[in-house]
Amino acid sequence: MTAVGSRGRGFIARPAVAASVAKAISSGPEFEAAFPVKGRVLEAVLCSDCEAEGYLRLRVARNPEKSWSYDPKDPSTFLDVYGLDPHGAYAKVRAGEWAEGRIVCFGYLKKVWSKRIEIVGDVLQGGTRLVGRVHVDGAVAIDFGLFQARLSFEDDRTREKFLKDAGLHDGAFVATDVGVDIELKRWGPKEQILRR
To answer: Disulfide engineering: 57 pairs with which of 29, 42, 151, 174, CB 3.0-4.6 Å?
Structure first.
């Protein structure tokens, strides 16, 4: 945006607050977690680059422990999930149908300074920044809000070394730029999918 200053010269206006772009998290301890979902298919798309795989976009309830249903007019009740479909369901499912399956999230973990669990943005998709809280109680679990990632180790000594090297403790926060796969098990009318 160009603006004219008090002396008539043009200048580029700067935003009042500098935007900080976080560096991508591409190394550190790895995790993979899967969790069940039921939701509405919004898109089923063939990859335009390779034509050998496809992507799905689902709308799921933000709090599935209460109900799988959501209010499409209230964004606080749902979350859109966009991810790679490794099993080819994108070629069979139609937009508008309801589906049951699981979301597989994976990535690298990095300790961050934060005060809350959060998802950056309104869509869970590849590259979305998630912030989770670490829980250490014999096992190590990371609560990302929508799902939990449980880390497994060969023995207690390996777990303690991991926690020390990563600088993690109970109550610490970690971030990840998540990768997302969507694996559908079945699809059809809403009543049929939500019945079970």
So the answer is: 42
What is the domain extent for residue 40? 24-195
The residue to which tokens 């490794």 are assigned: 86
How many angstroms separate the CA atoms of 115 and 113, rounded? Answer: 7
Pairing state of beta strands 110-112 and 10-12? unpaired
List the alpha helices (DSSP H) in 51-189.
156-166
Tokens 């969790």, residue located = 35
Per-residue pLDDT tens over the stretch 104-122: 999 999 999 999 999 887 8
Query: What total number of domains does the chain contain?
Result: 1
Q: Is residue 154 part of a domain?
A: yes
* pTM of model > 0.85: no
In a domain, 190, yes or no: yes
Sign of CA dihedral 61, 181, 48, 130: positive
